[in-house]
Specification:
Layout: E1 3-7, H1 13-30, H2 45-52, E2 57-64, E3 67-77, E4 90-98, H3 107-121, E5 126-129, H4 136-144
Parallel strand pairs: 4-5
Antiparallel strand pairs: 1-2, 2-3, 3-4
């Protein structure tokens, strides 16, 4: 089966929301203290509508037989204004999802490859993304396609007194 990678349009909105709901359910099940319970696709509809038209970013879709089976959202970040950090142009990947039934078929790699082309065309020097430590499958995938650990984000919950 041929997988097509293309930029999303507003006509893809409903399919994007359904796929995003799939990853939202997984994230909430794993980390309910971080991710809100998905009440349905309506909550995030405006977010995805705006992401499609984001002039500083790109929303890529993977389709098979005209069915949306994966998506990747990336944005260019402003260079750091901290004096002791090197100012760099960075592409930040905020969301990558491939529908469960299609995982392991190279779709995620195709999305990442296209996002890298887009990042390079926008003069990015680096691509960044975050992945939860407990998501071993995603960490293994990102490692296999050339991503490496740069930092750890550590948290401490502050419960009400």
């Amino acid at each position: 089966m041929l997988t097509e990678i293309r930029q999303a349009t507003q006509s893809d909105h409903d399919a994007i929301c359904l796929l995003a709901e799939e990853i939202n359910l997984q994230h909430h099940a794993h980390s309910p203290h971080v991710f809100s319970a998905p009440p349905g696709i309506e909550r995030d509809a405006d977010f995805w509508r705006a992401a499609i038209d984001d002039g500083d970013g790109i929303l890529l879709l993977a389709t098979r037989e005209q069915r949306v089976v994966g998506l990747l959202r990336a944005r260019m970040m402003l260079p750091a204004e901290t004096p002791f950090l090197r100012s760099r142009s960075v592409c930040h990947i905020g969301t990558v999802v491939v529908t469960v039934s299609m995982q392991g078929q190279g779709i995620g790699k195709l999305l990442l490859d296209e996002s890298e082309r887009w990042a390079r065309s926008n003069a990015a020097e680096e691509i960044r993304l975050e992945v939860f430590d407990a998501n071993g499958a995603a960490i293994g995938f990102y490692d296999a396609v050339g991503f490496g650990m740069q930092s750890h984000i550590m948290t401490k919950a502050l419960l009400p007194l």
